[in-house]
Write a structure and sequence with these properties.
globular, single chain, about 0% strand, protein transport, about 525 residues, two-stranded antiparallel ribbon, membrane, transmembrane, 22 helices, about 65% helix, mainly alpha, oligopeptide transmembrane transporter activity
Length: about 525
């Protein structure tokens, strides 16, 4: 469906694909002239890759201090307020610099500079402004509910005992123990996580409105042109066969195993909402390279659907719905991008599935004490904040339910994210029509809200450095050294990413699985690698 619009039109560039294509073309120079230039590019590629591979041993293993340089903490390492402001791991990362490429990545090259500015503005507003205001002003539940946590709490701030609220009936369906729930009360969350929900709602709605206003006429024109060209009946039949047989097959597996605690009929709703989001989300991604998450909206829909007698309220059912509906768009994005480059990459994605699963199982087995919070991690890497987010959403949307959640004055403001997401792109569109030379069309409200929604509770060390490096690459070099940028930017980005990934794989295979632990020293402090010793009160 979306392929007809995005793949054949050169305006939809898929920025990440440009980096991949540049690398592939350098590896396969055709003419003598191209071979000469390609050899030089590949020589630089391998040198940068080697340098990155060697360098990454410092932030990742030997000298993690350089992974998050917190100058504010250097001058007041025992001052809690200063530590909270300066720490990139557990604080807001004010002026925090990272020398770890994993916190930067080649998005400093692949993202257009306007996208990078929008992302950084969203980060500054939510992390450098709103968090200190809420934290030091005791706003929106702070400090009762940890603003740097995306966990779930009781009203008094203690951990939420969600397991005690679930019981299973004779047919295997999970229900909420209403008596126990009334004793425990509502499931609260920290201010940062709560306004994150607001921002994700705004981002979801904004994607539809923004694409309709700015790209609607173009999409309609492309669609009409494609219809005029005509399609063979065989091609159309093949498409619909894939669209029906594969989902039905997956559905049979889900029904047969009965292991996801999700009502069967909600599976079709998940596919429907996932398909509806595919076009606007793909349009944003094709033009910017920025991927929008749709999980929070899907969780809201699921919460309302199962809020009825007889429905399973197990939090894992909500997670299954989120994955199914979200992956309709996420997988479509991956396949579309691969078709923009070369179809054989789909095979690589298939190989990546078992490898990623194996690594994930290793992380759970070897780092569970860090992830669960039983043992504090001085490096602040194994926080498990993504898993906590899934757990919190499952408790709030499936177990408690959105009706109870948004009946509370604490969560009710979150719903204003929907009108905010609808109004923001209209204002930008009107400004663009009034002042076309000001390029308001570059200020994508969908990306802004999504950036503002990104949870930086435990890791805020990357955005500032990313913006500085992105300004150098995609503003200074792109504007004032265009020939140099054209020749070396994408090659450099690919080499840096490859070198980092090679180093990570090496550390995982030869150090991680063998249990070799780096000794503690000044640059690998046992308490806090940033030397922000008063971060925790």
């Amino acid at each position: 469906m979306v392929r007809k619009i995005l793949i054949d039109d050169p305006e939809f560039i898929f920025p990440l694909s440009l980096q991949q294509v540049t690398l592939y073309r350098s590896m396969q120079g055709k003419t003598e002239l191209h071979k000469s230039a390609s050899k030089r590019q590949m020589k630089v590629f391998w040198w940068i890759l080697l340098g990155t591979f060697v360098w990454q041993f410092l932030p990742e293993y030997l000298f993690p201090f350089v992974a998050a340089l917190a100058p504010l903490c250097w001058f007041a390492s025992r001052n809690h307020t200063v530590n909270f402001l300066g720490a990139g791991r557990g604080g807001i990362g004010l002026l925090n610099i990272t020398l770890n490429w994993s916190n930067i990545t080649s998005t400093v090259i692949t993202y257009p500079y306007s996208v990078q500015v929008t992302i950084f503005v969203g980060f500054v507003i939510t992390t450098w402004i709103l968090i200190p205001v809420a934290y030091f002003g005791n706003l929106w539940g702070s400090p009762t509910y940890d603003i740097m946590s995306n966990g779930v709490f009781q009203k008094n701030g203690s951990s939420y005992p969600f397991e005690s609220l679930i019981y299973t009936d004779s047919s295997g369906i999970q229900h909420v123990n209403e008596t126990a729930y009334h004793e425990v009360g509502l499931a609260y969350s920290g201010a940062q996580y709560t306004w994150e929900i607001f921002m994700w709602y705004a981002s979801y709605i904004s994607s539809f409105v923004w694409c309709a206003l700015f790209l609607g006429p173009k999409v309609a024109k492309i669609w009409k042109a494609r219809k005029a060209e005509g399609e063979s009946h065989q091609d159309r039949l093949r498409e619909w066969a894939v669209l029906t047989i594969v989902p039905i097959g997956i559905l049979l597996v889900i029904v047969a195993t009965k292991s996801v605690w999700m009502p069967t009929w909600t599976y079709f709703v998940a596919l429907g909402f996932g398909g509806a989001a595919m076009l606007p989300m793909s349009l944003v991604y094709a033009m910017s390279g920025y991927s929008i998450k749709v999980g929070f909206f899907n969780e809201l829909i699921y919460g309302y659907m199962i809020d009825a007698p007889g429905s399973s309220r197990h939090p894992l059912g909500q997670l299954a719905y989120r994955i199914i509906s979200g992956n309709v768009w996420y997988d479509a994005r991956t396949v579309l991008e691969d078709q923009k480059v070369i179809g054989i990459q789909i095979i690589a994605n298939m190989l990546a599935l078992p490898i990623n699963y194996g690594v994930m199982r290793w992380v759970i087995a070897s780092k569970f004490d860090y992830v669960s919070g039983r043992i504090p991690d001085p490096q602040g890497q194994w926080t498990g904040q993504e898993f906590k987010s899934y757990n919190t959403a499952g408790i709030q949307y499936a177990l408690v339910g959105p009706k109870k959640l948004f009946a509370s004055s604490f969560f009710k403001p979150v719903l204003y994210g929907f009108p905010a997401g609808a109004i923001a792109p209209i204002i930008i569109w009107l400004l663009h029509k009034k002042f076309p030379k000001a390029r308001f069309d570059l200020w994508n409200s969908t990306i802004f809200f999504a950036s503002a929604a990104t949870f930086h509770g435990n890791l805020s060390t990357g955005p500032f450095t990313t913006f500085l490096v992105g300004t150098f690459f995609n503003f200074y070099l792109y504007r004032y050294r265009r020939a140099f940028w054209n020749k070396w930017a994408y090659i450099s980005g690919a080499a840096l990413d490859t070198g980092f990934n090679a180093n990570l794989l090496f550390i995982f295979i030869f150090l991680g699985t063998t249990g070799v632990v780096m000794v503690k020293w000044w640059g690998n402090n046992a308490d806090n690698i940033e030397r922000c010793f008063a971060l925790k009160k």
